[in-house]
Amino acid sequence: MSERQARIKRKDSTQNDAPKKKSSVLGNVIITVVILAFLGLGGYALKDNLKALIPEKPEKTPTVTDMAKERDMSVEDFLKEYGLEDGTITKDSTEQDLLGVFTVENYAKYQDKTVEDLLSEYQIEGAAADMKWNDAFQLMPMSKYAEMMGATFEDLKAQSGLPEEITEKTTLAETQKIMQEAQESAQTEETPAETPAE
């Protein structure tokens, strides 16, 4: 083969390779775009599942300090305003702690309501303004309790297996007493009587 024929052959092979290179680059680009799109869509689809796997930070329970700031008050003023200056509640106490020591009157004030409105809202009868809120709350009828739980009384009764003697007007305190007596009675029936030794 002459030098001229070799040059022509090289030229032909270079021209034949060029389209292959362009098409292979274009093919690689298309494949890369498809893979990236697939990964992006897959990541987007899994986003909610990944959120469920990663635990969220628990919400900070507000303290008296936080509640006082929210009302533009000092801790001392907050405690005095709501009759909590006896020392049982501190700046680090939570709202749950407050509920155990609030009187009905102070809890109503805390909720920006009158005593009458607060008791009416919870359908509580027979509670005095100076009664502890937790004690007054126990006078709430089961119908209101069911409503607060997002159910009807009938649904709550069926789901909880409440005895027939508990009605919509039965208070929480009465319900707890009835349930405790039923549980004790059931335990007594389950315990076999001791037989005397002969």
Structural class: mainly alpha
Total beta strands: 0
User: Main sheet?
Assistant: none
Shape: elongated
**Span of the ends, CA to CA:** 125 Å
- Strand portion, in percent? under 5%
Low-pLDDT ranges: none
Quaternary status: single chain
Number of helices: 10
Helices and strands, in order, run as: HHHHHHHHHH
Average pLDDT across residues?
A: 82
Would you write up a description of this structure?
This protein is mostly helical. The protein is 62% helix and 0% strand. It has ten helices and no strands. It has helices at 3-53, 64-70, 75-81, 95-99, 104-110, 115-121, 133-137, 142-148, 153-160, 172-190. Helix 5 (104-110) crosses helix 6 (115-121). The longest helix is centred in the N-terminal third of the chain and has 51 residues, at 3-53. It starts with a helix and ends in an 8-residue tail after the last helix. The model has no long low-confidence stretch (mean pLDDT 82).
